[in-house]
Amino acid sequence: MCGIVGYIGEEQAAPILLDGLSKLEYRGYDSAGVAVYNGEEIQMVKSMGRLKVLNELTHDGAMLPGTVGIGHTRWATHGVPSDANAHPHLNKTGSIVVVHNGIIENYVKLKQQLTRRGYEFRSETDTEVVAHLLDYYYRGNPLEAITRLMHRLEGSYAFGIMFQDHPDEIYAVRKDSPLIVGHADTGSLIASDVPAVLKYTRSVYFIENGEIVRLTREGMQFYNIDEEEISKEPVTIAWDVNAAEKGGYEHFMLKEMYEQPKVVRDTFSPRLKNGDIVIEELGMTDQEIRDIGKLYIVACGSAYHTGMTCKYVFEGLARIPVEVDLASEFRYRNPILDEKTLVIIVSQSGETADSLAALREVKKRGIRVLGIVNVVGSSIAREADNVMYTWAGPEIAVATTKAYSTQLIAQYLLAMKFAKVRGEISQETLEVMLEDLERLPEQMEMLLSNKERIQRFANRYLAAKDVFFIGRGIDYAISMESSLKLKEISYIHSEAYAAGELKHGTISLIEDGTLVAAVLTQEDLFKKTMSNMVEVKTRGACVLAVTVVGNTEVEKNADYVIYIPKTNQYFTNSLAIIPLQLFAYYVSIGKGCDVDKPRNLAKSVTVE
Ligand code: F6R
User: Fold this and answer.
1) What one-character DSSP code corresponds to residue 318?
2) Measured from the CB, is residue 399 less than 6 Å from ligand 1?
3) What is the arithmetic mean of pLDDT over 206-221?
4) Which of 53, 102, 170, 335 makes an SS bond possible with 49, Cβ 3.0 to 4.6 Å?
């Protein structure tokens, strides 16, 4: 989704803006632009395509003098990707400039009204109405114009705004789209996300809905929609500056896959104490845990897939009924919730529009919400009743790997905790499970060290048209994530199927040479999935089997086998996903795809 940056300070603004935008590239974009006040007027450069083009056009920013500016990477929603539709957008005289992340839902009506008042539009975007509406309301007081604008807008927005006749200020505003501000030694910054400012400051303010910030070289003031000054507390970000850099790896995705053993350990170890699981941030008494009647796990994409896996874990271990919902469906389906329901929202970014809307829907009904979130201080983290952080650090590659792995761990911990408190597992069982949990990082390392073998196998499938992933139970959930990983970064069509469902239609798609990846990590389902494997094999499929070490029986019916180490049956996803992530990665780079920034995708999906 779109990325916003802004800088006002002692240094030349343009290089800082371009650097900030490069840190937001992972959010996905199709065009980019910057606007800088050069001492006389606002100078703007924007262009379709990658940031490289903008860097070339501005000689890495050198051609744009001035110490105050705003920048943007656009992910098209209204209007095709083009130079004209790229942000920033100007009013008619070029004295007010705006960058925007979000969607103005009533822009058609506003555009008609502005057109009647003589305003001419140069782009097809919803954002341009903002520049003209500000022009309409502006009488020399930026704050007044901005609050009047806010009263007229419907939809979601984070804005960076500059007024030429207030050259020592930038304004930032937010409603339902992420926005942070921070003050560093040499000036003040705005950004859509933390990585863009990490190099300059670790102390940031998360802007809430309806808040306005006035940034100057010396600092910043915060206001509410009634133009009253308010005070805010900064949040200190513990992330290491280098964590958002490639650190010698060819791609962020590879680096992040290699970080999985560490971040998995970082997520469980602070919560293990003397053979017990202590999750203080859960904020629930043992009685409240015993009283849970039903769990909903609500999320999008890969985060949803972790819920699919953990449904089996929560139900199997704690015997609590679980429904797993896509946030985009849940929010509109009027789910049946009561006071015994606990809703868990899982999100890496903490800003996914549908997940956030689902959370708000649940809270409106007075039901308890627990967020499992990676980005500290993000909207879901702030609005949930309680938040359990996954300690994955910044995830830059669009395709999630390390955040996914930590989301699984957070849910395993919860499931074991609930099971123990509800008397479903003994202390002895818990301790055996914790030993398995603590072995996962080392086992993941072992699987990662096998990457060359997987690369050789992946290279045979660069021309594949369709790939199927099959499994039962947790193995079906692993298949869903593996299939998403492959299709999103390699553009090869792929589907995940519950192995038992194949015969009900999908098996007709199997042809000579079609790759079918069968996941068989669940002992009690092994024979069943084996039969399905044989069925596709006899119809010409090439079979890749992923199973637990010792299950050599699969070799009779598979063309290629990947063994994962033995672990508890509920934790197998954490291991089986590693070779399948590597497979997707190597197919993608083998095909020459942009693995970290796949086409059409955005890291943080802040529009519904
Ligand atoms: C896929 C992927 C997405 C995200 C989804 C939810 O690799 O990364 O499917 O999992 O967009 O994002 P968060 O977790 O930020 O809510």
Assistant:
1) I
2) yes
3) 95
4) 53
